[in-house]
Write a structure and sequence with these properties.
- The structure is a homotrimer.
- By secondary structure, chain A is α/β, with parallel strands linked by helices.
- Chain A has one domain: UDP-N-acetylmuramoyl-L-alanine:D-glutamate ligase.
- Chain A is built from 11 helices and 9 strands.
- A 9-stranded mixed beta sheet of chain A has the order 2-1-3-4-5-6-7-8-9, sandwiched between helices.
- The longest helix of chain A has 21 residues.
- Chains A and B meet through α2, β2 and α10 of A and α5 and α10 of B.
Chain lengths: 269, 269, 269
């Protein structure tokens, strides 16, 4: 209940402060990520040229780095922006999309983790395992893994990197050091819309831009997406499909409020 | 009434001619901009490689340059396409997204204004002030300014650059030389969808591609977005949110017609 | 009826295998393409850096190459990924967006066809004529041509390149060698949403990722889009427009099943 209350307060804080969330992200889901930030109450900005990212991030409440369509030009921008954010005490949120699928993604994630201190990392089980140095069979950018030792993995990575770690899946796991919570909100239809993972990361970034408690921000971002997904799914009628679901998902994020989070949030410890 | 009639005729002309609107634009809102052009009756094309932009723009009714996610590669393409458009007498519409937020954006906008003759510039108050050489505090790409001397600023910039200038906000201001009009259409929910500014610019480009009167095109583009926003907002029910609003916004642009513009357009002089 | 049955079985196979569809595509319609692949039952991945495309494609069921916003960096990635796919026997689907509009597009398409063996090419009549070495007046990336000799053109290109060729338009033509079929599904409103061509190509890629019969995959992809467009259009009410239509289009792809394809597919030979 303490945590649910903190999450609710974090939402109010987002709406009051409207933090600027600088993204260096992929071109597949970027529009949805921007609209998610706005729907929650933040202000998105996307900028990826090496000549401007350090200056842009200096105005930001948080920096979201998403490697979904990384390239050699933008990798350097991610590093430069991340370092600048570290210098200024601005939280950096990493979405290691598809890490493990290619050497470029794995090397880039490793380099990012070496050169930039992250505040939160959010990925699916496969991605978090790869970052943890575990073996996992990867196919593209979607998770193949389904594990019971996720709690241990999240705690381990969190301790090693000294940041919050969120593993999203049927049950989400968020850890920061020995602090762990599980979230059972969500609906499997969320996996049928591209970028709900990216969007969760952007929500975490938005929450982190309005609070210094990044564990709460991580839980809040993941729970908000899961709860909105549930509510959106419930609102569907039999003739509706994934197009309508996606529209309603944005409706529900936009209408999210303290009461809904407190009454609908499903936390397990 | 003269102006409203000219706007309505410009719309009919768009639907008859279906002008090709070449965009060099950002990857955040590009899909929405393309769909806006189509919904109004134009034909969008996006192409940004330096090897093809001059050839592509030569078929176009108008060129839209939007610096929302500029990079060093695309900046050169913007310049090259803009110069070619000037040579051929094709109108160029500039959206100086986030100018003032970073030196790269400010330098790029300055360079564009030096090397390319614009027909219309559309920005928020902060952006237009920066282009006017005025001081303004910038945070990211959304407007922080709220001014009463907007009319003077728009006229000043218009005279200096010899082009139409549109400042969009709660009340929109469009100037071309000493000709000024204000538009009070719109709803504040428009600011909760990413890219409604970019989309307005694309609508201006589409109108400009079907008429040689760029002042009317600027007023028409801004008014069409504002009026569609109003109508879309009115159609919402209590359980709807920003996702449904965005869908309806496209519906309303698609259904826009002469009658709606004439009866719904709110012009002030 | 044989073909309709094969199409229906191909859909079931997509849903069972959920093939990974690697795209190197444009930034205008990429999100819609990813969501189309997911809606049909596949798994999309977008990756375009030269350092990773060969590795990424090696996990894929099919590779979709779409030149809609090609640039000099991504052209090399298209070639490299295409060659690797050929080596591994993975089908490559080409969408030659806007070929003929600029020399860069024409040269790139020529190079792709020389260096990469395609399994399916999908374009509008203008684009397929250009690839066939015929003269055609091009304006941007949308088709200007409307022909009666499409059947002959499709067969000719198919034989020359030894691949399936799909020409989409009011009536769609699909050929592989002397095998030809026409599809009369679809509604003209589809041309009012940007990227329905790109999305058809992504659907073809998804079908091809789950079957070795690429002619059937090409027919299936085109028919699925046409039929979904018809059903989506029928579901509209008088106040709906293009925004609602697009949402329903995704709904209908998501709800597509064997029965609908068999009862609704309109094949002509």
């Amino acid at each position: 209940m303490e945590l649910l209350k903190a999450i609710a307060e974090n939402l109010t804080s987002v709406k009051e402060k409207s933090p600027l969330i600088h993204h260096i992200t992929n071109y597949v889901t970027v529009n949805d990520c921007a609209n998610m930030v706005l729907a929650l109450g933040g202000s998105p900005v996307m900028a990826d040229d090496i000549e401007e990212v350090q200056q842009m991030v200096s105005f930001a409440g948080a920096l979201v780095i998403n490697i979904g369509t990384l390239n050699q030009r933008t990798i350097e921008s991610m590093i430069a922006a991340g370092k600048k954010a570290n210098e200024l005490g601005i939280p950096v949120i990493l979405d290691p999309v598809g890490v493990g699928a290619t050497d470029l993604r794995t090397k880039t994630a490793d380099r990012l983790l070496k050169e930039v201190k992250m505040s939160v990392i959010r990925g699916n089980m496969s991605e978090i395992k790869i970052l943890s140095g575990l073996n996992v069979e990867i196919k593209g950018v979607d998770s193949a893994a389904d594990d019971t030792d996720g709690r241990e993995i999240a705690v381990g990575l969190s301790k090693r990197l000294n940041c919050a770690v969120a593993i999203t899946g049927a049950v989400d796991i968020i850890a920061e050091g020995d602090k762990v919570c599980l979230i059972s909100n969500g609906d499997k239809i969320l996996s049928k819309v591209t970028g709900t993972g990216c969007m969760s990361t952007s929500l975490i970034g938005t929450y982190a831009g309005a609070s210094k408690d990044y564990f709460t921000a991580a839980v809040a971002g993941v729970m908000t997406m899961g709860l909105a997904g549930e509510l959106a799914f419930k609102s569907l009628e039999s003739e509706d499909g994934i197009g309508t679901f996606k529209v309603r998902l944005f409706d529900e994020i936009y209408k999210m409020n303290e009461e809904k989070l407190i009454s609908g949030g499903k936390l397990l410890f």
